[in-house]
């Protein structure tokens, strides 16, 4: 059997696997994706994508292709007798804090888009960037060694082939055969309940005029959850864990709507294992877990499911690209588990801190509720790829509560470049970036880049790029006039020098060598 080769094999071609393919191929990493299905599942799961996810897609050229939610839009949920019956109190995902200032933390808004509408866009972009997508192909088994991973693949026609990859990314879902083969256990709240669902079409737009899109249906002897995908399709989740025939399905739908005179088209049904489990390791040798394979979280209004997995893929992609190019040591890949697993646990904790899931929390698991902006933009990374994220820092805080500390997402600020108003985020994510106001860092960046073998761009504020508010820029990055901030290719602060050191080039060379695990130290 002939053996072909690639740099990265991604197992699973749903949201997280496709995102990984886009992020890897955009960075020039040869990538093969295998997916046993021929397309998107007819039962969409994810429905909302967060501003941070939109930032990541914007960076790889998808900003114009994903329609963003209208300004000020928020997800509203009420308890109701039925959709057409009496509505009761509205519940919030996070209790409102009127003392928190209304600030702009991103150039992006979220997207209210069904998963099966987003996946074709990701497939098209991955192919355009050079990824090899193999639909209708499944992983039979794999073996790994110190040199790579060998995978046995089977197509729909029954033909088998061997593929050698330097690394394997398992984005193969919550049951993850790859995770099981590696013997990686899981911890967390565990299985909570099993639910059934049905996707249907019905002309119910009149009930969305009030701006509410989610409904907890509560009747004597009947509880369900009803929401819309915004495209004529509705999702109904009910607790009767048995297969219903067509008449029974329509009766359940009519009960949730509160009317039986509405034309209903049943699209598909599903069965949900609602659980909260985090893998004990996100990596084993040359194999990495991402998305539901790494963390299974119950559907929630915080977007902690698919969005967390997409962020996994983004974190891992730049590290695999750095190692593949030879600019960084494989030690850099150890920081994937160190950075992403605590985030999964933080989101697990926050789900059960909120009212939606608090009744199902494990005893003694009380935790303070963190602000939505903190969870979206202000999570902290601690690893060997971050210099200076000490233990006194909180796991997350709103961007306006951070001041450019290493381990935080570089802040969004408006700047002028080439006569245009752009976000600081638009200057990032392609490569390593040094941001400073002091021109003495420019030659230091050139020398440090040459010594490390890393691509490093020096962005001097006040030169070709001018901050709209210079004081706000310094405060947001925590810098004095002579300071500099080193931003990783994923847009996170790796290191900073608050002021100008005695030897900028030595300080920067040392920071790059540590943060990037560089193979060449000069």
From TrEMBL:
GO molecular function list: FAD binding; oxidoreductase activity, acting on paired donors, with incorporation or reduction of molecular oxygen, NAD(P)H as one donor, and incorporation of one atom of oxygen
Record field: transmembrane: 7-26
Pfam families named in the record: FAD_binding_3, Rng_hyd_C
Domain FAD-binding, first and last residues per copy: 6-346
Flavoprotein is among the record's keywords: yes
Cofactor: FAD
Claim: Flavoprotein is one of the keywords in the record: yes
Source organism superkingdom: Bacteria
Alphabetized InterPro entries for the sequence: FAD-bd, FAD/NAD-bd_sf, RIFMO-like
Keyword entries, A-Z: FAD, Flavoprotein, Membrane, Monooxygenase, Oxidoreductase, Transmembrane, Transmembrane helix
Name of the protein described by the UniProt record: 2,4-dichlorophenol 6-monooxygenase
Organism: Corallococcus exercitus
Lineage of producing organism: Bacteria, Pseudomonadati, Myxococcota, Myxococcia, Myxococcales
């Amino acid at each position: 059997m002939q053996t072909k080769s690639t740099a990265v094999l991604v197992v699973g071609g749903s949201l997280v696997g496709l995102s990984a393919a886009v992020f890897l191929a955009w960075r020039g990493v040869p990538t093969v994706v295998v997916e046993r299905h021929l397309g998107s599942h007819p039962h969409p799961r994810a429905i909302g994508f967060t501003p941070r996810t939109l930032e990541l897609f914007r960076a790889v050229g998808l900003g114009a292709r994903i329609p963003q939610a209208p300004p000020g839009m928020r997800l509203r949920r009420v308890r109701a007798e039925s959709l057409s019956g009496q509505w009761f109190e509205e519940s919030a995902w996070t209790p409102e804090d009127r003392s928190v200032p209304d600030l702009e933390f991103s150039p992006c808004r979220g997207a209210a888009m069904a998963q099966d509408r987003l996946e074709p866009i990701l497939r098209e972009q991955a192919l355009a960037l050079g990824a090899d997508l193999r639909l209708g192909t499944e992983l039979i088994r794999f073996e790994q060694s110190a040199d790579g991973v060998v995978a046995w693949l089977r197509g729909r026609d029954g033909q088998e082939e061997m593929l050698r990859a330097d690394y394997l990314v398992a984005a193969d879902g919550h049951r993850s055969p790859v995770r099981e083969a590696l013997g990686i256990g899981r911890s967390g709240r565990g299985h909570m309940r099993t639910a059934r669902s049905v996707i249907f079409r019905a002309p119910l737009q009149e009930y969305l005029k009030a701006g509410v899109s989610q409904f907890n249906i509560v009747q004597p002897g009947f509880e369900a959850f009803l929401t819309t995908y915004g495209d004529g399709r509705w999702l109904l989740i009910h607790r009767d864990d048995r297969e219903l025939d067509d008449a029974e399905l329509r009766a359940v739908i009519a009960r949730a709507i509160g009317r039986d005179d509405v034309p209903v088209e049943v699209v598909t049904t599903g069965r949900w294992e609602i659980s909260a489990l985090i893998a004990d390791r996100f990596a084993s040798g040359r194999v990495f877990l991402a998305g539901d394979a790494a963390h299974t979280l119950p559907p929630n209004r915080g977007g902690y499911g698919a969005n967390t997995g997409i962020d996994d893929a983004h974190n891992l992609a730049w590290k695999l690209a750095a190692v593949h190019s030879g600019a960084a040591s494989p030690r850099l890949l150890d920081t994937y588990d160190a950075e992403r697993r605590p985030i999964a646990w933080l989101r697990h904790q926050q789900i059960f801190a909120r009212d939606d899931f608090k009744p199902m929390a494990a005893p003694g698991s009380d935790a303070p509720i963190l602000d939505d902006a903190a969870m979206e933009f202000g999570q902290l990374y601690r690893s060997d790829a971050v210099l200076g994220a000490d233990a006194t820092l909180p796991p997350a805080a709103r961007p306006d509560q951070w001041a450019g500390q290493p381990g935080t997402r570089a802040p969004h600020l408006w700047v002028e470049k080439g006569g245009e108003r752009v976000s600081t985020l638009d200057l990032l994510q392609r490569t390593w970036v040094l941001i400073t106001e002091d021109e003495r860092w420019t030659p230091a960046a050139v020398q440090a880049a040459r010594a490390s073998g890393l691509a490093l761009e020096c962005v001097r504020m006040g030169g070709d790029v001018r901050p709209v508010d210079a004081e706000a820029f310094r405060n947001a990055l925590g810098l004095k006039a002579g300071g500099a901030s080193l931003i990783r290719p994923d847009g996170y602060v790796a290191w900073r020098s608050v002021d100008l050191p005695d030897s900028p080039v030595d300080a920067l060379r040392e920071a790059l060598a540590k943060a990037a695990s560089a193979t060449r130290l000069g």
